[in-house]
Amino acid sequence: MSRAVLESGTLSTASRRADIDMLRVGAVALVLCVHTAQVFSPWQTWHVQNETRSRVLGEGMLLVGPWLMPLFMLLAGRSAWYSLARRNDRAYLVERIQRVLLPLVAGTLVLVPPQIYVHRTLDGSFSGSFVSFYPEFFRGIFPRGNFTWAHLWFLAYLFVYAVVTLPVFRWLARVVPTRPEPSGRTILLAGGLLIVAQIALRDRFPQNNALAGDWANHAQLLPAFVLGFLLTGNQRFEHALVRYRWHALVMGTLASAVLAVLAWQGRLDERLESLDYRARIAVWAIYTIGAWTWLCAISAYARLHIRAESSLVRYARNAAFPVYLVHQTVIVLIGWWVVRLVLPVSAKFLLLTFLSFVASILAYETLRHTVVGRLLLGLRSRSVRPASH
User: Fold this and answer.
1) Is the peptide bond before 42 cis (omega within 30 degrees of 0)?
2) Cβ contacts of 11 within 8 Å, gap of 6 or more
3) Cα-flanking dihedrals φ and ψ of residue 377, to 5°?
4) Contact 111, 325 (CB under 8 A)
5) Residue 348: C-alpha distances to residues 52, 53, 351, 354, 386 (Å)
6) Which residues on neighbouring strands pair with residue 146, listed in sequence order?
């Protein structure tokens, strides 16, 4: 990975990184499993809910919850480095509009309404065809109303972060490549600042995925975005994570274990409300420690062990973002049928996961061959040569 800055002030480019591609593919596969598990989770109500719930699946969701979306944002920060290496500011923003904002708008208008249609049909607040429901989608904000960007909230956050960090990233591009390797103390300090932010904000600003007022979530996701940019800009930063990978893995495992024990005793969100202020501080500190240390450990072990990629991974890396866009709609629609089957929860989960994966790939293969489909999926024009990451 190059760490030089060109004399012109533009960022250096690099060949594709197998570890980054694998992490991106793995993150999308994992989020598909997590959203499938929501159908069976006892911790929350979702668009489609199986009558019998699974505490094991609920626990699994909780274990990845602190770090999964920050991992997506970290990978987006890595992509920002490569994108800025090839483009001036205007071209970078145009690319963000084409590959993030347009899929957000198109997906909200096309992919999200079927989810809310199923939701309202199942809760009995609407009866009729999807065509007759579509105008209702624009009435009120979900959950009281119907309009929402659902799982596409991530794109809204990513687009805003890309815009507001542009001048900062251009400055970092000049100074980061020459910075020395950070010490373990520096890494701990960075994690400590995130803990303080979550303690200060999480109770006052619970996660709402609405962009506005979601300060605790911003305090977790924006640093992950910047971290991805920094890791790609200076290989010494990655060397530091590799050096302390074992420490991060142990701390992340312990944090996850504590959260799992707390959740197994009952719904964690309900139990938090009954805890005093000091106990809630401890819980959010553990949550943030888990998020930060798992990010560091995952990045380090991927860098250390993933060196080459197969033709299957090359296909998967191109399909990952489109699959992310369509997967939740697919899960809700197929889940609407699966929950009616007389099967054990484990069988339903495996069946829904498999069918959702296959259907998401089929949707990608169908849409990517059309101009409108490529626009919806945020894919580059076929005439454009693919860029690194």
Assistant:
1) no
2) 5, 81, 82, 84, 85, 173, 233
3) -90, 0
4) yes
5) 11, 11, 5, 10, 38
6) none
Q: Name residues whose C-beta falls within 8 Å of residue 373's C-beta, 6 or more positions apart in sequence.
A: 366, 367
Provide the residue count of the chain. Answer: 389
DSSP 339: T
Q: Residue 137 in contact with residue 108, Cβ under 8 Å?
A: no
Alpha helices in the chain (DSSP H): 18-38, 55-64, 68-86, 89-96, 102-110, 113-122, 130-133, 153-164, 166-175, 184-201, 215-233, 235-243, 245-264, 268-274, 277-305, 311-338, 345-367, 371-376
Q: Give 301's contacts (C-beta < 8 A, 6+ positions apart).
A: 245, 249
DSSP string, 42-76: SSS--SS--SS--HHHHHHHHHHTTTHHHHHHHHH
CB distance 286 to 318 below 8 Å = no
From the list 315, 169, 164, the residue with the least C-alpha distance to 229 is 169
Per-residue pLDDT of the chain (389 residues; tens, 9 = 90+): 333 332 333 444 456 788 999 999 999 999 999 999 999 988 778 999 999 988 888 878 878 989 999 999 999 999 999 999 889 999 999 999 999 999 999 999 999 999 999 999 999 999 999 999 999 999 999 999 999 999 999 999 999 999 999 999 999 988 888 788 887 778 878 888 899 998 889 888 988 999 999 999 999 999 999 999 998 888 888 888 899 999 999 999 999 988 888 777 665 556 566 667 777 788 889 989 999 999 999 999 999 988 877 788 889 988 999 999 999 999 999 999 999 999 999 999 999 999 999 999 999 999 888 888 888 888 876 644 444 56
The pTM of the full predicted model, rounded to 2 decimals, is 0.90
Radius of gyration (Cα) for the chain, nearest Å?
A: 21
Per the DSSP assignment, residues forming a β-bridge with 141 are 147
* DSSP 8-state assignment for residue 176: G
